[in-house]
Design brief:
The protein is an alpha+beta fold. It has one domain. It contains two helices and eight strands. It has an eight-stranded antiparallel β-sheet, with helices on one face. The protein is globular. The two termini are 25 Å apart.
Amino acid sequence: MHSYPDIEIYLAHCDIARLDGWLHQAIGAAPLSPAGKRQWRTLGRADAGEVPVLVVEKAADGFASLWLDSPETPWVTDAACARDAAARLGCEVRCSLGGWQPGDDPDRFLQVLPDGSQQAIDWPDSGQ
């Protein structure tokens, strides 16, 4: 299975300090720095190069968006990243159900809770 071209997940509670710790541990990222209104950026590293990171607070329905703009992350899929984030950050995390294809329902998301439980949900306010 090949990695996704990028990873995007949505965090219910975006604690920048906790996020910094997790991103540092996962991809060796420097602390997030402000990059405009409600936006934060950093740069992580993976085996094959750099991993640009963008966090947008309140991107969708009160959730923050975390975007890792590289196929070279420790996670093969958005769902794998979401499961790791929910466990490490202790918050609800959402992501698209799979690699998005034309014809897929853009409102269907995977909801992952900190206890590891997950379910497919409708999330029409995701702004996709």
